[in-house]
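May I ask for an example protein's residues together with how it folds?

___
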Amino acid sequence: MNRIATLPMYNVSPALAAEWRAWLGNVLSLAGAHASIVEPDDDLHALWRRSDLLISQTCGYPLVNGLQQKVQLIATPQFDVPGCAGAEYSSVLITRADAPFDTLAACRGARAAYNQDDSNSGMNVFRHAVAPLAQNERFFAEVIRTGSHLGSLRAVADNLADVAAIDCVTFAFVRDELPELAERVREIGRTASSPGLPLIAAHDVPQDVIESLRAALDEAVAASPERAARLRLKGFASLSFDDYTRITELENKARALGYPRLA
């Protein structure tokens, strides 16, 4: 079987996407793995479920909501980013640079933006942060779905929304790659942390290939410290599916507080 490889999650600029693609090629070479590196399309759920998937990256929320029956975990990146600790990450709560909001609590009645309904960093942890403030009531005057973290950042910067939760790794890359956009917003808080976005493979990829990929991930970091620094990679951790139940716990806490969705 000719397998595929792709990294769809942190391509905030064409230059960074090219860097990730080159790094992925290095990993495949070091692992002795044969796969075609492909560009991700819009249907990530279909991509993650492909039987020929050798390596890709997913969000933890779809992972714990059905995807884990279709894939196996390879490793979880550890990023050199504020808001990350080991293999865990959090989201940055942002507003416009000139907005009057200094805390999430002050955003009652404001406009919220989020990326996708199945996003942990843009929706799930945001919902968890708002839940104790909402007190079983609607918290925001309006909630808009933007389709991406970059879309949420731009919605806030362009005064189409007032607050959003942005994956801290994405936000660090935006500071690196799109500083003009980063300067138009400011941080007003952080969300709870949870396990980061894991690298996955199709369920039937042999275990020896998985082990070769894990070794190659660390080798690629050590082989090119400059590239690793640009990608903010410190290393990788091997997590289990049980570790990702933290994401479900955050969802359940929000629901228990009478706040099942961003509103």
Remarks:
- The mean pLDDT is 96.
- Residues 14-31 form the longest helix (18 residues).
